């Protein structure tokens, strides 16, 4: 990768917290660790910090090249760096692997201090609210009283929204991209199919597969294949694959005939090689449970009344999993409360994954908003 406009080679850092954290489920998690990366320099006023929240399969490695693996480029590297829309010449950017993650933060792969074995299925369920509470501990650790902005796409956008609700005085701008105030029944259904694929895998062993020396590869593979379909638009899949045959003819078998089948199997195999099944189960449930309006009889405007931050909300035209209509729900609820909100509905044929791509118009809109954040 070219080092031009890159944050360069980066290495993860660890923060250990000895104080227990009370989770929304009622469980109490003892001391925990968060793995994070930082890019740019904190100014003397400590007013230029931006938190990047990751989506389902993301993590702390947001930008630059991993010091231990030169092929591992940050998942939002096209957005974060010197001179890029999230400009590290201006901002001090923090990426963190969420509590319960599988990239080094305390989670199902960690050793339970009580048993001396990996937590596995015994790791308590965590929610978006719990992640944000853990983020706040990290902010304290870094000496950050207030974030200039919290930004995220998809599930990361839910975290940015929750930051504005849980800590309204600790965030100046919330940037919610390709997200929703809660999942639709259809989205919950997709998540449940993915979970059942994992739970029904013979190698799952009730979530304690590590003790058996196996991984529920088949379940993880199928879960990712199902999810990946929802991340792409029909038009994009048609353009990339259409009905192209893998071997130029019908094989009249259940092996790969069509290129799209080959693509989905590749994505499933790749995902199953590095992601933890228990983390996947927990994270999809966190998605399902998130609903700020739940405690307000479904009234989103009432739920968002306590937010003080200015908002940037963006959606993508072909995103059918987190459609523009869902972003507009957030916008209308904020306007009802006379909050400052900028909204962009971006024309893209890439579906939900649009928020990860290097789209000129999308990046120009982000750049314009971020340039107007004073630090």
From TrEMBL:
<dbReference type="Pfam" id="PF00561">
    <property type="entry name" value="Abhydrolase_1"/>
</dbReference>
<keyword id="KW-0012">Acyltransferase</keyword>
<feature type="binding site">
    <location>
        <position position="353"/>
    </location>
    <ligand>
        <name>substrate</name>
    </ligand>
</feature>
<feature type="binding site">
    <location>
        <position position="224"/>
    </location>
    <ligand>
        <name>substrate</name>
    </ligand>
</feature>
<comment type="subunit">
    <text>Homodimer.</text>
</comment>
<dbReference type="GO" id="GO:0009086">
    <property type="term" value="P:methionine biosynthetic process"/>
</dbReference>
<dbReference type="GO" id="GO:0008899">
    <property type="term" value="F:homoserine O-succinyltransferase activity"/>
</dbReference>
<comment type="similarity">
    <text>Belongs to the AB hydrolase superfamily. MetX family.</text>
</comment>
<keyword id="KW-0486">Methionine biosynthesis</keyword>
<keyword id="KW-0963">Cytoplasm</keyword>
<protein>
    <recommendedName>
        <fullName>Homoserine O-succinyltransferase</fullName>
        <ecNumber>2.3.1.46</ecNumber>
    </recommendedName>
</protein>
<comment type="function">
    <text>Transfers a succinyl group from succinyl-CoA to L-homoserine, forming succinyl-L-homoserine.</text>
</comment>
<feature type="domain" description="AB hydrolase-1">
    <location>
        <begin position="48"/>
        <end position="358"/>
    </location>
</feature>
<feature type="active site">
    <location>
        <position position="352"/>
    </location>
</feature>
<comment type="pathway">
    <text>Amino-acid biosynthesis; L-methionine biosynthesis via de novo pathway; O-succinyl-L-homoserine from L-homoserine: step 1/1.</text>
</comment>
<dbReference type="GO" id="GO:0004414">
    <property type="term" value="F:homoserine O-acetyltransferase activity"/>
</dbReference>
<feature type="active site" description="Nucleophile">
    <location>
        <position position="154"/>
    </location>
</feature>
<dbReference type="GO" id="GO:0005737">
    <property type="term" value="C:cytoplasm"/>
</dbReference>
<dbReference type="InterPro" id="IPR029058">
    <property type="entry name" value="AB_hydrolase_fold"/>
</dbReference>
<keyword id="KW-0028">Amino-acid biosynthesis</keyword>
<dbReference type="GO" id="GO:0009092">
    <property type="term" value="P:homoserine metabolic process"/>
</dbReference>
<dbReference type="InterPro" id="IPR008220">
    <property type="entry name" value="HAT_MetX-like"/>
</dbReference>
<feature type="active site">
    <location>
        <position position="319"/>
    </location>
</feature>
<dbReference type="InterPro" id="IPR000073">
    <property type="entry name" value="AB_hydrolase_1"/>
</dbReference>
<feature type="site" description="Important for acyl-CoA specificity">
    <location>
        <position position="321"/>
    </location>
</feature>
<keyword id="KW-0808">Transferase</keyword>
